[in-house]
Amino acid sequence: MVSQAQRSLALIDAFVAACLAPLAVYILISGLDDLFVALACAFGWMRQRLWGRGGVRRPDARELQTLPQKRIAIFVPAWKEDAVIGAMVIHNIAAIRYRRYDFFVGAYPNDDPTLDAVRELEARFENVHLAVCPHDGPTSKADCLNWTYQRMMLYEEQHGVRFDLVMTHDAEDLVHADSLLWINFYAEEYDFVQIPVLALPTPLTGVVHGVYCDEFAEYQIKDVPAREILGGFLPSNGVGTAYSRAGLEKLAQAESNRIFEPACLTEDYENGMRLHRLGCKQVFVPLTRANGEFIATREYFPQNLHAAIRQRTRWVIGIALQSWERHGWSGGWRQAYWLWRDRKGLLGNPLSTVTNAIFIYGLATWVFSRAAHVPWGLARASAHPVARWMLIATLALQAVHAVVRVGCVWRIYGPLFALCAPLRTLAGNYINTMATFRALWLYGKARLRGEPLVWLKTEHSYPSRETLLGHRRSLGEVLIGSGYVTEEDFASALLSRPAGIRIGEHLVRTGKLTEEDFCEALSLQQGIPLGYVRPDEVNRRVARALPRHIVRSWRVLPFRIAEGAIFLAVPEPPDEEAEAAIRPFTRLEVRFQLVTFSNFEELATQLL
User: Which of 76, 255, 280, 357 has the most crowded CB, counting CB atoms within 10 A?
Assistant: First the structure.
């Protein structure tokens, strides 16, 4: 007699079997599409490496350094970014090996914390400028960027200068030290230059952020080069994108002065398509390793499910839904193919989760049938020769795709992280599915109610000081690049420096550099705040919060305890050994503030 459980299982088997054929057809089509792109990328690589034809020419170091520098405006749209905008600007000013650039940070009048943070930067750096939108936020990134562009033009008018390029970045970006040099090189020929974008490395336990690592590695190594090879338009990544003024002026003329489309949630994707249709030349900077690191914009992407789904909801709305509404399938069959690839996730994302569920169900029932010595309920679904070959083909295509992704991730993050990429695909499928459903709901609701779609803000975090140190220029580059000393004086000081004396100290002793300027450059290079500490404002009990031998040995002096932290004045940046020596003597968070040598001696003399 057949039990109720067996009948239920048989019904589920029948339903799953009925789903297999249409799923297999879609997976086969999508898999062949992915295989075509991978083969196109492989052909382009072979043509360039083996036969020396095609591909984008890479400049050598001499070309990068000797080419006259164009003036670059870096736009950073900011809505509630007070927690990260200061660190972003300070770090990147310390890191960038380029002279002729300015930051223009767009903010809203109803976001006082961000306004205050940008005004502090504006007071500290002459190449940082605040652009305040004339209305409250949030609106869209495109709207904020448009008003930032107006602020740039006002600056040009007031100072009699002209920016040759406009570059977009977000408030969490680490700009590679040489990326502006590469942009300067390619801007000789192209109106749209895209620097690669890669997620910062993450531990194996960081599954959500790991999904971004996997997907961006594959996209930058395989998909974007294939678009170039096959003549597709290049969508902007939103960050690390530079536009020539000629290209932006074409956009302004074609779109009633809307350089960035304010109604679009993915203005970056939109601009890539619009510039291509206007005949502007586009280039993706080849992913290149220099001095042990890739020339790429790096950042932390969302690290929890909610934030990742929220961000990808914006991507799906802008890239798939708004683009479809605004442009349809126009542009000829070649561009229609790339539009299909960009939009197929509307169907493919939910189906990928269904496929994962069916695979897990099929594997579980197969194991159960083998253990219980009963027929496998799904055996008949794959018994037909056509069905069997189709299932084998789809499995083979998925295996090829997994190998390609592992190879791309391996190149950026190493073998151990790459081998876990197939497992992270399950998490990626779930995130993309939830984002697709949420995008369809929000988009449909906005259209029914006639409401505008607004900026879906992603919460940003900025890397720790330890992570940032690997991306900084040397102290000499900061001193020369920021105009504290001339290149000739620095070279002369290197030759005349006595043994055991640091170059900065020697420059101060010889009068080539003031003590204040040296500390300011050191603060910029190391990412440690700089200030003057008045001895009469320091409580003596606080100043003696650490043992005297620690203060004298490591040259650190406590001057304030607040917000669960002990603030230490230091005349030079502490190393890891110093921090390790201090931590056993306090349970408070340790924060450092750089002071001049004379200020430190003043504090030590009066307080100890």
Answer: 76
Give the contacts of 43 (CB within 8 A, at least 6 positions apart).
Answer: 229
Please report the pLDDT score of residue 53 as a whole number.
66
Residue 592 lies in a domain: yes
Residue-wise pLDDT for 581-596, tens only, equals: 888 888 888 888 888 8
> What is the three-class DSSP state of 192?
strand
**Which tokens in the block code for residue 21?**
């054929």
139 and 198 assigned to the same domain = yes
Which CATH number do you get for residue 496? 1.10.40
Do residues 284 and 194 touch, judged by C-beta distance below 8 A?
yes
Residue 560: give its domain's CATH number.
Answer: 3.30.300.160
Return the residue matching tokens 């204040």: 516
What does the DSSP 8-state code read for residue 174?
Answer: B
Task: Tell me the per-residue pLDDT of 401-420, one tens digit each, with 9 for 90 and over.
Answer: 999 999 999 999 999 999 99
Residue-averaged pLDDT of the chain: 85
What token pair was written down for 430?
């779930």
Cα(38)–Cα(224) distance, integer angstroms = 11
Q: Which helix (H) or strand (E) holds 235?
A: none
Give phi and psi for 194, each to the nearest 5.
-115, 120
Dist CA 514 CA 522 (whole Å): 12
Cβ neighbour number for residue 288 with a 10 Å cutoff: 14
Cα–Cα distance, 416 to 181 (Å, whole number): 33
User: Does 574 lie in the same domain as 480?
Assistant: no
Residue 437, in any domain of the structure: no
**Closest to 556 in 3D by CA, of 575, 542, 569, 539:** 569
Q: What are phi and psi of 103, to 5 degrees?
A: -95, 135
Question: Domain range for residue 581?
Answer: 528-608
Contact (Cβ atoms closer than 8 angstroms) between residue 273 and residue 233: yes
CATH number of the structural domain spanning residue 101: 3.90.550.10
Residues belonging to the chain: 608
pLDDT at 344: 92
Looking at the 3D structure of the chain, how many domains does it have?
3
pLDDT in tens, 540-583: 888 888 888 888 888 888 898 887 888 888 888 887 788 888 88
20 vs 64: CA distance, rounded Å: 55
Rounded to whole angstroms, the Cα distance separating 286 from 54 reads 13
Is residue 500 domain-shared with residue 540, that is, in the same domain? Answer: no
Q: Which of 18-27, 234-243, 340-349 has the lowest mean pLDDT?
A: 18-27
Read off the DSSP letter of residue 321: I
Q: Is residue 35 part of a domain?
A: no
The answer to whether residues 188 and 79 belong to one domain is yes
- Among 494, 511, 527, the domain boundary falls at 527
- pLDDT tens digits for 86-105? 888 988 888 888 989 999 99
Whether residue 269 sits in one domain with residue 156: yes
521 in the same domain as 548: no
Phi, then psi, of 519 in degrees rounded to 5:
-65, -35
Non-local CB neighbours of 205 within 8 Å, separated by 6+ positions: none
d(CA 593, CA 26): 59
- The answer to which of 290-294, 407-411, 524-528 has the lowest mean pLDDT is 524-528
Q: Are residues 236 and 287 in the same domain?
A: yes
**Domain-embedded: residue 56:** no
Q: What's the CA gap between 301 and 313, in Å, rounded?
A: 14
